[in-house]
Every structure is written in structure tokens, then in C-alpha cells.
Write a structure and sequence with these properties.
By secondary structure, this protein is α/β, with parallel strands linked by helices. The protein has 2 domains: 2-220, Spore Coat Polysaccharide Biosynthesis Protein SpsA, Chain A; 240-333, 3 Solenoid (UDP N-Acetylglucosamine Acyltransferase, domain 1), CATH 2.160.10. The chain is built from 7 helices and 29 strands. The chain has helices at 33-43, 57-63, 84-95, 115-125, 179-182, 192-203, 221-230; strands spanning 2-6, 27-28, 31-32, 48-53, 68-69, 72-78, 102-106, 109-111, 129-135, 143-148, 151-157, 168-176, 206-210, 215-217, 247-248, 253-255, 258-259, 264-265, 270-272, 275-276, 281-282, 287-289, 292-293, 298-299, 304-306, 310-311, 316-317, 322-324, 327-328. Helix 3 crosses helix 6. The longest helix has 12 residues, at 84-95.
């Protein structure tokens, strides 16, 4: 079994963390988001993942130079120009000579779906393509799927609030037959959500199945923070919250937070509901609440960082500074 993994986006919603790092290479707990996605595929029997790359392909290639991640062979399909979702799928699948049923996953979706079960359901339905669905409270941010039995009859991308026909959304994992690739134009940008799925609906060959396991799109600061905390508070698992090589002063308080390798928390500091990445420093008497501090960043003594503030990699926050719902560096200083 092969899979196509889509990681080509710029991660704009997670800036400044993604100014120089693809979002899938951000850590979720002690390992990257990408490794968690590949590990899940391996558990379903996928032996080769074809990674569709756009932004900073070197970050992936340098991280896995031997062509293996989480026990799965990885190969790379690097786009010369953005091809959108369907274009990227076609490009990656053709580059790997995929000629049998294959999986497609979004690299910023963390889920506990059983991909082997999904493939079995796809085959039992006789589908050309099958979408994995999950239910959400607010479907307006997603692609909403309306069904007649298991057959998709409508696909509405990001409907206006209150207008969605259902709360079942496209959860970012698909099973495709190779014939789907023939429906995707060979040149230019093509969207799987806006172009390919509606064509499959018209042909009557698009099906969908839902499951109620853990699922999160970790592409925003709020969901990225939640994905990390879900690993340590029992929501998804109970992994270690503090890396053994982190340094926490005995007079510091750390509650429900992820603290990465080599990070340090000073005397009198208070860290609550936050992510402190590898090598970051939180100074004495500083406060970090419900926020993300990037690798190598420093929070000065007595500084106060809260309300989903995001501090980029290697960025200093001055002693005594106050951030509430802020980003550092500020957008005006982003080199993009």
C-alpha cells in the first residue's frame, strides 16, 4: 500500500512559527507532526509514503536523509510551482508510478482513524474515491459532505455559518483508485475539494464513511496548542509533558504544559497550558499562559505572555514586556 502525503502549503495561519519551518515539521510533543502522520500510515500497512513538497523541501529531506520515517519508506515529489491539492496529488502519484488503490492524507491532520479499515470500506463500497468524515460543532471552516447512504450527493466547501447541510466534514484522509488521477488536469492548479470531488459526485462514484475517533486539524495556533496538550492530559494519550533534558527551577510552576528538550524555566516563573519548545528560555518570575514559545526563543525576566500569544523561533521577549494575543516578531518584521 502506498500513500500520498500533502505537505506543500506555506502554513500561513501558524506564522511566525512557520516563517522558515514547514508546519508539519513543528513538534507535537517530542516528535514532529510529520512523524506522527507517517507513523499512523505505517500502522495501517503503508510501506511507502510519497510526500508532495512545495515550501522548504530541504527541511524534510535533511530530517530523513536515509529515506525512512517511522519505519516507512519516504520519497519526495517536489513541485516547481504550487499545484493546489488535486494537482499535488496527481503530481506525487504519477512520480511514484502509483497504479493501485492508494491513500491520501493531509500532513497537518492528526487523527486516530484506522486507515486499513477505511481502505476495506472503500473496496466494499466499490467506490472510485472514499472520503473519511468526522463530525464537528462548527463546520463552516471545513468542507461539508452531504450523503445519501454512503454515497456523496453534495460537497460544500466552507459554507457560511448556519447554512451547512450537515456537521459531517471532510477529515482530510481519502482512498483513491488510480482512475481519479485521470480526472485531474495535468497542468495548472486543481483543487480536490472544488474540482475533483464535485466531478466524482456527478459521476456517482464518490463515497464517504465517518468515524468518531480523535481528530484535529493542527493548522492554527489554537489547534496546534491543543494538539500538544491533548497528548499529555489524557484527551488523546498521556505522554511525558516535560522532556528529561529540560531544566525547571524548583521554585518554578509548570502546569499542563509541554516543555521541550533543553528548554529552561527560571525561578518563580509560571507556565500554564502552553508549549515551550526545545532550547527556549523562560526567565525568572516570567509568566506564560495559553501560549506557544518557539524553539530557541527567550522570555525575559518578569515578562507576561498570555492569551494565545505566539513567539517565533529564536525571538526574544524583553524583560517585563506584556503580550496578550500577540505575535513576535510582529508581521511588519516578517521577511516574506
Amino acid at each position: 500500500m502506498k500513500a500520498v502525503v500533502l505537505v506543500g502549503g506555506f502554513g500561513t495561519r501558524l506564522r511566525p512559527l512557520t516563517l522558515s519551518t514547514p508546519k508539519q515539521m513543528l513538534p507535537v510533543g517530542p516528535v514532529t507532526m510529520f512523524e506522527r502522520v507517517i507513523e499512523r500510515l505505517g500502522a495501517a500497512g503503508v510501506d511507502e509514503a510519497v510526500v508532495s513538497l512545495g515550501f522548504r523541501p530541504d527541511a524534510f529531506i535533511d530530517a530523513f536523509p536515509d529515506g525512512e520515517c517511522a519505519g516507512v519508506r519516504v520519497r519526495y515529489a517536489i513541485e516547481d510551482e504550487p499545484l493546489d491539492t488535486a494537482g499535488a496529488i496527481r503530481f506525487a502519484a504519477r512520480s511514484a508510478d502509483i497504479d493501485d488503490t492508494f491513500l491520501v492524507v493531509n500532513g497537518d491532520v492528526l487523527a486516530d482513524v484506522d486507515d486499513a479499515w477505511l481502505v476495506e470500506r472503500h473496496r466494499s463500497l466499490g467506490a472510485e474515491a472514499t472520503i473519511h468524515l468526522t463530525a464537528v460543532d462548527d463546520p463552516s471552516r471545513y468542507g461539508v459532505v452531504a450523503l445519501d447512504g454512503d454515497r456523496v450527493v453534495a460537497f460544500v466547501e466552507k459554507p457560511a455559518p448556519g447554512t451547512a447541510p450537515t456537521n459531517l466534514i471532510n477529515a482530510g484522509t481519502y482512498v483513491f483508485e488510480p482512475s481519479v488521477l485521470d480526472r485531474i488536469a495535468a497542468v495548472g492548479k486543481v483543487s480536490v475539494e472544488r474540482d475533483t470531488f464535485p466531478a466524482l459526485v456527478a459521476a456517482g462514484t464518490l463515497f464517504a464513511v465517518a468515524s468518531d475517533g480523535y481528530w484535529i486539524d493542527a493548522g492554527t495556533p489554537a489547534t496546534y496548542l491543543r494538539a500538544n496538550l491533548d497528548l499529555i492530559d489524557g484527551t488523546r494519550s498521556n505522554e511525558a509533558a516535560v522532556h528529561p533534558l529540560a531544566s525547571i527551577d524548583p521554585a518554578a510552576t509548570v502546569e499542563r504544559s509541554v516543555v521541550g528538550e533543553g528548554a529552561s524555566i527560571g525561578a518563580g516563573a509560571r507556565v500554564v497550558g502552553s508549549v515551550i519548545m526545545a532550547g527556549a528560555r523562560v526567565g525568572g518570575a516570567a509568566t506564560v499562559i495559553d501560549s506557544v514559545v518557539g524553539a530557541g526563543a527567550s522570555i525575559g525576566d518578569g515578562a507576561d505572555v498570555r492569551e494565545l500569544s505566539v513567539v517565533g523561533f529564536g525571538t526574544p521577549v524583553a524583560a517585563g514586556d506584556h503580550l496578550a494575543g500577540a505575535v513576535r516578531p510582529e508581521p511588519s518584521d516578517w521577511d516574506i
